[in-house]
Protein: NitT/TauT family transport system ATP-binding protein
Amino acid sequence: MLTSSSSTSDEPGQHRGRTFITIENVEKKFSTHSGDVVTALAKVNLDIRENEFVSVVGPSGCGKTTLLRILAGLSSVTSGVVKFDGDSLRGPRSDVGIVFQQALLLPWNTVLDNVLLSPHLKNDRSEATRHRAEGLLAFMGLADFAKKYPFELSGGMQQRVAICRALMREPKVLLMDEPFGALDAMTRESLNVELMRVCSEEKKTVLFITHSIPEAVLLGDRVVVMSPRPGRISEIIDVDIARPRRLKTMANRRFGEICDQIRTIFGSDAPMVTAL
Structure:
């Protein structure tokens, strides 16, 4: 449900809710065409709290997307357990929304129909559902583009539609796989601000994958730092910077310290993007 913004700042550590997602000793192996076995994830353990924003950073190929696909129920674990609110994950869940790097909109559908895709697949064409879709588009500044087609939108606007489509399911959990990675710097910054506003209003548990250390710190309550393959969690860093955060937060001394701490974990030669 969309509500008005609160003017109250969140103090660091205020997002210490109950554990909602539990990842216990998760391992994922793949068999290649040559018959070799590749270990993508090895003994990953992580608890994600309700309404917490967790950023995940790590070098390419470290298993970030594999972990997201497991949480989405799109890939099974080789060993270990994933639980949502105490229940073992056995496949895709209706209370999980996903936003990928590409918007993946249906080109023959209007913006509104793309947002309504999930309910339409369930034969839900009620006025209430349409009203929510229109409300989400308005919330994301897209009310005037409801009847446009994807090719008529910029890349950033398409990603806003993809976020609306994910929120249309009213998910408890939002999984985001480098959703702004292909966008220009100014659009990316704008969408970071929008995403923080959405999460403040909609109260979601978010796992956000990125290659950008500043983006991870700006958005996250915690930053999970992963090692090169086989992917393990090297360190989990609390972002002890009060909310609401804005772009000027990146000029904060503590912000710079946390970014430098993450860079140090990878070493000076780590292949990481260090700017939005």
Observations:
- The CA atoms of residues 30 and 38 lie 5 Å apart.
- The two ends are 30 Å apart (CA to CA).
- DSSP finds eight helices and ten strands in the chain.
